Amino acid sequence: MSLKIALTKGRVERKVIPLLEQAGIDCTPLKNKKRKLIVQTEDNKFEFILAKGPDVTTYLNAGVVDIGIVGSDILNEQQNDQYELLDLEVGKCQFVLASTADFNVGSPERKIIGTKYPVITKKYFESLGQDVEIVRIEGSVELAPLIGLADAIVDITETGTTLRENNLYVFDYLDKVSTRLVVNRMSLKQHSTEVFNLVDNLKKVVSEKIKLQGEKIR
Ligand SMILES: Nc1ncnc2c1ncn2[C@@H]1O[C@H](COP(=O)(O)OP(=O)(O)OP(=O)(O)O)[C@@H](O)[C@H]1O
Ligand SMILES: O=P(O)(O)OC[C@H]1O[C@H](OP(=O)(O)OP(=O)(O)O)[C@H](O)[C@@H]1O
Prior knowledge:
Number of helices: 9
Shape: elongated
Number of domains: 2
CATH topology of the largest domain: D-Maltodextrin-Binding Protein, domain 2
CATH architecture of the largest domain: 3-Layer(aba) Sandwich
Strand order of the largest sheet: 2-3-1-4-11-5
Oligomer: single chain
GO molecular function: ATP binding; ATP phosphoribosyltransferase activity
Bound molecules: adenosine-5'-triphosphate, 1-O-pyrophosphono-5-O-phosphono-alpha-D-ribofuranose
EC number: 2.4.2.17
CATH superfamily of the largest domain: Periplasmic binding protein-like II
Pfam families: HisG
Subunit structure: Heteromultimer composed of HisG and HisZ subunits.
Helix content: 25-40%
Distance between the termini: 45 Å
GO cellular component, one term: cytoplasm
Strand content: 25-35%
Number of strands: 11
Structural class: alpha/beta
């Protein structure tokens, strides 16, 4: 039976495929899948289920997949205690509080904050002792302070390009984000050899990559 892996499609998928290949998995069917959402490797050892990030944990919780590959931003936002086995060290970015230059984080008025991450945002402002109004936005979050929908945003940034090109400034840095491998606890019992084989192989790939990056910096 194949090990079922819910893989976040899009950016995460693109960053994770090279790691899977280096871990010895032939990803040709995954790379040629076009609009197919379920893809099996030639040797039938793995079945990839291509899903949106927030749905990856839904599949895991329902027990219909064994493994999930998803950003820690989503795991933190959902707060439902997934069993994380590996930080894949790709999809790295960071949560920031950002706004236009005139924003004052210390001002006493109740602020309106635009975000895709209401739980993380609420917690962050609670830690500052502030009760804020949250406007949930699905994408292009940077628009919110520009068009007067919110006073500021909490969003993820990688290169800072989107903020820069829209004249937004970082007012605070929150948690760092990266792609994680999480596992269904039942699968860990039923398919422990297969799961740990995959995790061990990926661990080697990730630590080799980190070592090489360290050598390049030195
Ligand atoms: N700018 C970024 N840099 C690095 N990782 C990011 C960035 N934005 C998002 N991520 C990570 O990728 C995951 C998926 O992101 P998102 O759903 O925004 O993009 P996507 O659907 O892959 O986008 P696209 O379809 O444009 O490739 C996020 O949960 C997060 O962990
Ligand atoms: O710092 P940068 O490298 O510019 O990356 C940051 C952007 O990337 C993400 O958006 P994404 O590209 O996923 O699009 P979205 O706005 O539709 O979510 C994030 O929400 C920022 O908008």
